[in-house]
User: Fold these one by one.
Assistant:
Number 1:
Amino acid sequence: MLTYQTLPVRHVSEFAAAVRDGLLKPGQRELPSKYLYDEVGSALFETICLLPEYGLTRADARLLQEHATEIVDRLPLPIHVAELGSGSGKKTRWILEALSRRQKTYYFPIEISPSALAACEKELGQIDLVSIVGYEQPYLEGLRAVAQGRDDHNHLLVLFLGSTIGNFDRAAGEEFLSELREILQTGDALLLGTDLEKSVEMQLRAYDDAAGVTAAFNRNLLARINRELGADFDLGGFEHEARWNAEERRIEMHLRSMKRQSVQIRASNVRVMLNEGETIWTESSHKYRPAEVVEMAERTGFRCEGQWIDAQWPFAQNLLITG
Ligand code: AVJ
């Protein structure tokens, strides 16, 4: 059974203001990456996960499939499971099945996209001994609601998979972990998926695939702004670019304006002039070193209880326990 704890519909104005601020930013213009994931963007991302160049999701799933029992064996029981960004829920199955062999399990996917929540229910709704309650909220708000609703003898396992943390820059990622820690109690756990550094060629190909799916995913952000904010971006006037920022150790996605052009965004009440060659920065994917994750955990009130690294695609599952 799935019940939605629905918030009032977020206003168009929040999106319009974020687009306005990002496009008017002096120096590098940018758009917040969270807006890449509308219904079309989420479907394109699901397709990215199938691409041979993008090994991240398969590595994430493989680690969970191979080590679910071992991971679950290190958890205090009974335990409820909350997931930040349920996605389609496919990878989560391995953890929920392993847990449900030991206990009746409650699973709380927290996700702002109603379509992703629905997909998750469809994927995971029929596992015996698992009850699903979806929270249609931002991550930490949803997690607070889950934490408040539990009784004291139940621990909480938070899943933050797929290297979603990589969207944050390092300082913000650490701040996020600290805030998350504050919501948890001693002995609660966080299973954190982190994509690891690999060869620059491999990383660039993962974000600039031959079939152009990632390019479509990136351009869809402009299409979405056109659709929802009454803008007139000429999508053909922008080129997808994946860039390795060696100093920050992250892949950046940009949209490069191929010509000098002006764009009007009606709901943002703004017109911007883009120079030929100028870019709009749309997403960052930070890459980590295994030891760095352990240190980050320790600085934010966790200890790393286990780290599993995929042999084919450098990616780590990190089991962090609150101290
Ligand atoms: C969903 C944020 C983990 O950074 O690899 C994939 C998003 N963007 N290809 C990532 C993404 C372009 C993905 N995350």
Number 2:
Amino acid sequence: MWPYPKIVAHRGGGTLAPENTVAGLRAGVAYGFRAVEFDVMLSRDGIGMVVHDPAFGRTIAGQGSVAHTDAVDLAAMDAGSWFGAEFRDEPVPFFTQFIDYCKAQRIWMNVEIKPADGFEAETGAWVAKITRDNYAGELAGGDPAGYPLLSSFSFDALAAARDAAPELPRGYLLDKIPAECQVQAKQLGAVAIHTNQKHLTPALAAQIKAAGYGLFCYTVNDPARGREILSWGVDGFCTDRIDLIGPAFT
Ligand code: G3P
Ligand code: MG
């Protein structure tokens, strides 16, 4: 149900580096991580960029939005200063840069498709196609442990990803797990349910596992909580505290 790593660095390197940057990936590697979650959104010209917020103002200074800015301009923006002066000019990465880094360092990827409003299907299809093209060898190899996992809160984005590259595994992201979630997960051909650890209960975890899905949680920063949800049958989780919860955490 979950051939993937159990402990995954959230948004690159969690809180040890600016989120969704190559510096974050480096921090993850420095802490022994070989598994990462990050967010991908399309630029104005339809290129996948690694960034969380649709609007500027938090990790990218100023006004404007990802969906209204070309990729080359996003890549020239400073996504590091907000976190610390030593990260000044850390760029907004292209998704393909993250792929290259992860392949070179043998890092497993959970790619969260994070569409700007109105771009759900376009983003899902784009991410799936680029991922499939870059992982053709792994997909042909037939070992699911080596496949990147696509996830999204957007049903439409995941449906488009399914149609564009059905061979890539998909995780359906839900803040709270609603009663009808398994109907939608089945329509999406999802292999896993990804959910907010805050709202998970032992009964819900048992229900998801009994239905045959992998169960992944975000975002666990307290080791005691991590141990608790793992005891409920949760298969894995992502963490911001890569310094407190290491890749071999049990
Ligand atoms: O993919 C899990 C988690 O990253 C979802 O929330 O807002 O951190 O992207 P967010
Ligand atoms: Mg995310």
